[in-house]
Amino acid sequence: MEARRLLIRGIVQGVGFRPFVYQLARRLGLAGEVANTSEGVVVHLEGERAALDAFAVALHREKPPLARITGIETETAEVRRVADFNIRTSRRSGSRATLISPDMAVCHRCLAELFDPADRRFGYPFINCTHCGPRYTIIDDVPYDRPHTSMRHFTMCPECQAEYDDPADRRFHAQPNACPVCGPQVTLCTADGRPVAVKEPIAETAIRLKSGRIAAVKGLGGFHLAVDALNPEAVQRLRRRKRREEKPFALMVPDLAAARRLVLLDPATEELLASPRCPIVLAPRRPGNPVAPEVAPHNRYFGILLPYTPLHHLLLRQGFQALVMTSGNLSDEPICIDNAEALARLGGVADDFLIHDRDIYLRSDDSIVRRAAGATRFIRRSRGYVPEPIALRDRLPPVLACGAGLKNTVCLTRGAEAFVSQHIGDLENLAAYRFLEKTVAHLERILDVPPQIVAHDLHPDYLSTRYALGRQNARRIAVQHHHAHIVSVLAEHGLHGPVIGLALDGTGYGSDGAVWGGEVLVAEAGRFTRAAHLAYVPMPGGAAAIREPWRMAAAHLDDAFGDGWRRLDLPLFEAVPVERLELAAKMARSGVNAPPTSSLGRLFDAVAALCGLRARVHYEGQAAMELEMAVDPAAEECYPYRVAPGEPLTVATAPMIRAVAADLEAGVPASVVAGRFHRTLVALFVDLCRRVRRRTGLEQVALSGGVFQNVILLEGMIQALKGEGFQVYSPEQVPANDGGISLGQAVAAAAMAEV
Ligand SMILES: [Zn+2]
Ligand SMILES: [Zn+2]
Questions:
Q1: N or C: which end of the chain has fewer CB within 10 A?
Q2: Residue 686 C-alpha to ligand 2 middle, in angstroms?
Q3: How far is the CA of 342 from the centre of ligand 2 (A)?
Q4: Distance from first CA to last CA of the chain, Å, rounded?
Q5: What is residue 98's predicted lDDT score, i.e. its pLDDT?
Q6: Which of these, 639, 736, 632, lies nearest to 682 by C-alpha position?
């Protein structure tokens, strides 16, 4: 007979962990007890050694679906000769130190009950249990107890209370537990906020959607705008009203079988789609699918997701093949979460509102992922993943990192864990700024750490920088944008560095005040040097050049040909009058309102415009994405470029632009030009890595920046670098784009503070 004491840390509260321990101990014939404490879950066990060992193994192998164990401390304890195994119920069921689970999709057992006419929750859109349902979005404080959630307004009926109190029940201490008798209810309203008197609000919403109307549907982390994805007029109307011209819409389908009819799925992608985190997954569209082309113009992919709330399941099973489910907001504002706010802000967009009375405390957009180069890649890391921490190599002082200007997230560290927030979005309006403030306050509250260091971008005008500069009682540290990109990769892979960092993106404020974005760094957490970069080219019109790629084409033509470009005959000239190009070229040469940039994103823009693919964009990165979509994989050969010696090395792109123009004049299709351009970039950056390796001896390469959302480039670069003997690291836990910046800022600032 032996006794052991286990302290288990992680996501172990509110996820059915104690009932699991209870049942496991009984199965193995062990006596003792389990309790929640302020440090985590504490288990006292007594029994034979073999059974104790079996317990330790099964603890990991069989833990409940939402549980995540981040640490177990085991020590020998005194044998008390207790007879039985018990759950010690504390008055408080949670503690401040334990982690909160992300919001998770409804589990298969709840789903079975939802569609079982004999079940007391048959058709009830708020069914949940300890294995599923809302978490992060409904709490406003820790510990995770019902009074700290938006369920505090609902008093459980005797039947729900009995489940809640029974350690053997799946709903033991399920904080959002509810039923049709005692829980939240749905209501269908028209755009003026008047309730529609119907017995079946969900069925009525479905009927209206089928007639082509637009519905605002309250979900887990905010409102969606929904239309029938097979109805082109409805999709067009949604685009018009939402003022979203071409950015792809996500599709929700009833089940995997329906997904397979719309997109091509490999097993790994299918697993991702069906996971309880339920992200939007990008997958190649199936030829001949019935979805309206307006859903994702000029795109080879669909963003597709399965229903994740019981409400979604009930709605989708009303006979839809696919619903457009896009964020309930106007263009770039944060997603709506509040009923009154939704009616006010979306009243001009949606015809009907399917709302309910369980409040959302914290908005969280759908996450977006894809499979590429053998791993899951985040485009947006939000609902279903946040607030799960990213494990760090070292313990850090508490750092708050305020993120970038676009695709903003913030990050707070506690010990050796980094908590990257949900997607906050583009900090270009007051609503987004308020959301940032609220998210920071929320993270500080639920993690219970006051930051000692506040990290921010070098850009003086970012709202995230201004927020950071307004923080008192903390040391403020600026971190260069591309340095942060590379350190985010070091952080998630537990690397110390220095490494060669390829930071390739659209825009980031450089240490010299220029707009960087085609950078080869030698970087470690606390410092970096710029080893190589694309030669500066002016951006005629500044920010206007981002919205109008033809401006970058003009600048590159001027750079490559001087005045000679007018004699060329290029597809671009059909889309943009030569006089406008001349004006932009003149602006570029004068340097007035034409800041220098080394951005690879802008080079993509220029080539896409030269090819006649896109002269103006409707959303960030559109031209680059369409150039990627255009690639003919069979295209061979590379374009020339010139590396100028020096520290840093600079890469002149003029030879490349001249060759692109020659191809286009010779009638080479844009798809082949796009293919050659991609091959050239792989060759070019591998060449630069080799040169830096010769000088520094470094063998590890970290890839980051929004350009690596380009799958052809990501996969091509990884393969080519490995072929040259490099060890390659790329973003897998946070986005390669600016959504990952806050993680890098936090770790970089902590290292810089030590010096
Ligand atoms: Zn469940
Ligand atoms: Zn009830």
A1: C
A2: 62
A3: 28
A4: 53
A5: 73
A6: 639
Cβ contacts of 111 within 8 Å, gap of 6 or more: 310, 313
Q: What is the pLDDT of residue 96?
A: 66
Are 550 and 576 spatial neighbours (Cβ–Cβ below 8 Å)? yes
pLDDT of residue 144: 82
Q: Which ligand is nearest to the CA of 129?
A: 1
- Read out DSSP for 525-571? TTEEEEEEEEPPEE-TTTTHHHH-HHHHHHHHHHHHHGGGGGG---T
- Calpha distance 672→634 (Å, rounded): 8
Residues by chain with Cβ below 5 Å of ion ligand 2? 157, 160, 179, 181-182
- Tell me what pLDDT residue 168 has: 83
Domains and CATH numbers, the chain: 2-88 (3.30.70.100), 186-356 (3.90.870.40), 533-729 (3.30.420.40)
Q: Which ligand is nearest to the Cα of residue 155, counting in written order? A: 2
Query: How many other C-beta atoms can be found within 10 angstroms of the C-beta atom of residue 299?
Result: 19
Q: How far is the CA of 318 from the centre of ligand 2 (A)?
A: 26
SS3 230: coil
- Ligand closest to the CA atom of residue 120: 2
Q: Is the ipTM of this complex over 0.90?
A: yes
Distance 193 CA to ligand 2 centre (A): 28
Sign of CA pseudo-dihedral 588, 590, 592, 595: positive
Distance 162 CA to ligand 2 centre (A): 9
- Reference 383, options 320, 309, 329; nearest CA is 309
For 438-446, which contacts have Cβ atoms below 8 Å and span 24 or more sequence positions? 438/362, 439/362, 439/410, 440/400, 440/402, 440/410, 440/412, 440/467, 442/140, 442/362, 443/387, 443/410, 443/412, 443/419, 444/400, 444/412, 445/140, 445/141, 445/142, 446/100, 446/139, 446/141, 446/142, 446/387
Give the residue ranges of the chain where pLDDT is below 50.
93
Per residue in 305-331, pLDDT (tens digit) is 999 999 999 999 999 999 999 999 887
Nearest of 388, 417, 642, 416 to residue 532 by alpha carbon: 642
Contact predicate 664/610, CB 8 Å = yes
CB atoms within 10 A of CB 434: 11
Q: Is residue 528 within 8 Å of residue 729, measured between CB atoms?
A: no
Q: Apex CA 485: angle with CA 481 and CA 491, to 5°?
A: 130
- CA of residue 516 to ligand 1 center, whole Å: 48
Check the CA dihedral 666-669-670-673 and report its sign: negative
Ligand 1 centroid from CA 377, angstroms: 27
Among 4, 82, 1, 72, smallest CA distance to 41 is for 72
Ligand nearest to the CA of 164: 2
Scanning 448-528, the segments in alpha helix (DSSP H) are: 463-469, 481-493
Question: Is 91 exposed, middle or buried, given 0-12, 13-18 or 19+ CB atoms closer than 10 A?
Answer: exposed
Rg of the chain over Cα atoms, rounded to whole angstroms, equals 27
